[in-house]
What we know:
Mean pLDDT: 80
Radius of gyration: 18 Å
Structural class: alpha/beta
Strand order of the largest sheet: 3-2-1-6-5-4
Helix content: 25-40%
Number of strands: 6
Distance between the termini: 53 Å
Largest sheet: 6 strands, mixed
Strand content: 15-25%
Number of domains: 2
Amino acid sequence: MKNKTKQMSRRDLLKAGAAVTTVAWAAQNSRSFAAGSDKMGVALIGCGSQGRVLATAAVKIPNIRFKAICDIWKYSQKYMKGILKKYKHMVNVYEDYKEMLAKEDIDVVECHDATAYAELHETEELGFCKQGEGGILAESGETQIGGKIPVNTSGGLLSRGHPIGASGLAQIHELVTQLRGEAGKRQVEGAKIALAQNGGGSIGPGTAAMCIHIFEKK
């Protein structure tokens, strides 16, 4: 018998990714999103209009607490801080995201490695090593499980594909699994703080849109 499994076109794959994103966001806004023992601290980088929309929705999710916000504009910092204060979220405020990430307490990272080079570049931009030393960091073994800063324990985008919206959700799923201690052979021992970095498009040499999430296990 011939295999009648229908192959997905790229357009269908993108539609599926969008559907997953929509369903997951709806689930996040339900009361059953998090178990009673799951408490997550969130840091937001970028407090513009899109950041405000996301934060306004996220503060209503049970057991999520904002810990820090970052933006280069004082007005955006003040406005976002005011929104979060209404929900009794007291946050630290930063102007430089590298200052916020400078503390050596990130235990595991999922980054947007749509190309092989991307992971090297992003570990530099996130401040885990000096500019131009992303390759040296990877070769040292420090980004492997058991290293100082494990990166893409899930295998990253290069191992699972890149269905746009679903890519970000897959990153967060992996990190939450790590924080719950349920990652099996991929488990980073003692993981308490996790970082997800996702981006797309380009403006000159830089990324056009960037989203960074930090999750903390309490």
